[in-house]
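Limitations
The C-alpha cells in this dataset are predictions for the assembled complex, not deposited experimental models. Users should treat interface geometry with appropriate caution, especially where small molecules or nucleic acid strands are included. An illustrative entry is reproduced here so readers can see what is and is not provided.
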Amino acid sequence: MSEKVIETKALTVYYGKHRGIVDVDLTVEKGEVFGFLGPNGAGKTTTQRVLVDVIRPTSGEARIFGMDCREQSVAIQERIGYLPGELALYNNMRARAFFEMLEYLRAGNGHKGYWRELAGRLELDTSRKIREFSRGNKQKVGVVAAFMSRPELLILDEPTSGLDPLVQQTVLELVREAKADGRTVFFSSHILPEVQAVCDRVGIIREGRLVETERVEDLVARRMKRLSLIFPEPPPAGVFDLEGVAELERAAQGVTLEVRENLPQVLATAAQHDVSDIETHNVSLEEIFLAYYGKRNGGNDG
Amino acid sequence: MVRLIWQELKFRRNAIIGWGLGLCFFPLVYIGIYPSVADEMAGLADLEIYQAMGMSLGTFSDWIGSILILFMPLIAAIYALINGTGTLAGEEEDGRLEMIVTLPLRRWQIVIAKAIALIISTLVIFLFVSLVSAIVFLSIENQIETDLVAMDIVFAVMSAWPLVFALGMLSMFLAAFSASRRAAAMIAAAVLIVSYFGDNLANSTTALEPFEPFFIFTYLDSTGRAVVEGQQTGDVLVLLGVGVVSLLLTLFFFERRNLTVGNWPWQRARAET
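Predicted assembly:
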C-alpha cells in the first residue's frame, strides 16, 4: 500500500478578501516526484508555504508524513528540505559559513559535510561572501541548503530559476537521485520540459483551485492529441468545428487538428472525406498546460 | 534553541562591539572632564532648560545621573529599537525569516531565542560601559569631592538597563504585530521621544501630570539620589513588567499569524503583471 507523504484536504487560504488557494485536495506519495504547475499568482507558493508552516490555512487541513503541518511542524521540518521561491540569504556571510550555520542549527541530521559535495557538483565557490554572488549562484546556495540534510521530502519552489542550462541539469539529476533513494520531491516550476523530464505526476493549479492531477504520460496521452490528416481533396472549411477540436493548420491536401474531445467524431468525419493517411504527433506538457489556460486557439479557458 | 541563541549573538557581535565602544564616549568624555567643569556645573543646577531635559548637574552624583542614567540609556535604547524591530519585521521583510521558521523549531522558540539574544547583547553593552565608567571614575576620583565609590557607578549604569529592556521588547512586539519594520520603528521611536520629553516636561508643568504614568521615562530616576540609593523597586518592576508583557504579546501574535515574506502574494502577482 502506498504511503502518503503529503496530503491536503479542502485546503483553503484567504489573505483577507484575497484568494490564495481554494479547496485544494492533493496527495503526494512516497518516492514520487510531483510537479506543481500554474502561472504567477495561481497559488503554488501559497500551497508550499502552508506545507512548511509559513502560512496558516484559513480552513481545511495539510498533513506531511501523516502529521499536521502546524501542530507538528517541528517533527515535520526535521525531515524536509525547503527551497523558497523568493530566496533571501544572509548576504554578509560566506557561503561556507552559511552552510555550517544551517548544519549547526539543524543539529544531528547525520549528513555532516554533505553540502561540500553538493557545492562541488554545482561548482559553487563557498569561500565567497553571498552578497558577491550572482542570482544564479545565490540560487545554487538555496539548492544546496535544501538538499544538504538528505531530507525525506524536498519542497522546492522553482528550483532551477536563474540557473544556466548545465546547472539546471545538475539540479534535475539531484532530483532524480532523491527519487532513486526513495525520497519524495514536491516542486513547482515554470519550465515545463523539465517537469515532463523528471516528474511522475503533475498537479495544475488555476486561480487557486487544483484543476488536474495526473501522471505526466497519461496527461500527455489522454488530454490532447495532435493529428495531421491527409486527404485526396481538401475537406470543406468548418467540417471539423466540433467541441474540443481546433484546426491548427490547413494545407493543400491536409489538415492539422488539436483534439481534446470528440476523437471518434473527428475520425468519422475524416473517413467521410476519404482520409488517406493519419499522423499523430507528440504533444508536450507545455502545450497541454497552455491549453488549460486558454492561450491557444481552441483552449477552453476553463 | 540554544544554538539559535548563540547564532543570533554571533550576528550581533559587531553591533555589540560597535555600540559598546560608541557608548563609552559618555563616561570617557563626561566623567573625564568633570573635574574641570565641576565649579561651572554647580552654578547651573537650577536652570529650567536643563530641568526640561531631565538634567540636574549640581553635584557629581547629579552629573552621573544625567549622563549615565539618562543620556547613555537614551542612546542605548536606539540600539534596542533598531535591533528589536529588525529582528522580526526586518528579517520578515527581506525574506530571511522564511528560512528560520522552516528550521525544526517552534515559533515561540524563535521569538524567545531572538529576545534572549537581544537581552544578552544589551546587558553586555551595559556591563562594558559600566566597567569603563568605573575605570574612568577611579582615574578622577582624587580630583573631585564625592562619597561615591566605583561600584556605585557600575550599579548606576546597570540600573538604567530595565528601561532599555522594556523598549527592546516593546519594539519586538510592534515588529511582530505590524510585520513592518518601518511602522514598528516609527511607533517605537515616537514612544521613546514622547515619553522622554513628556516625562521631563511633566516635571515642569502641571498640564502633563495626568499623562505622566504613561511615559516610560517616568520609571527611570536619573537624579543623584538614584546614583546613591538606586532605582525604586516599583519603578524597576514596572519597566520589567512592560518588557515581559511586550514579549508575551510578541509570542501571542507571532505564533498566530502568517509570515508575509516581503509582499503578500496578491501584491507579488500585481507586481508581476
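Some entries come with short summary sentences. For this one: Chain B has a mean pLDDT of 84.
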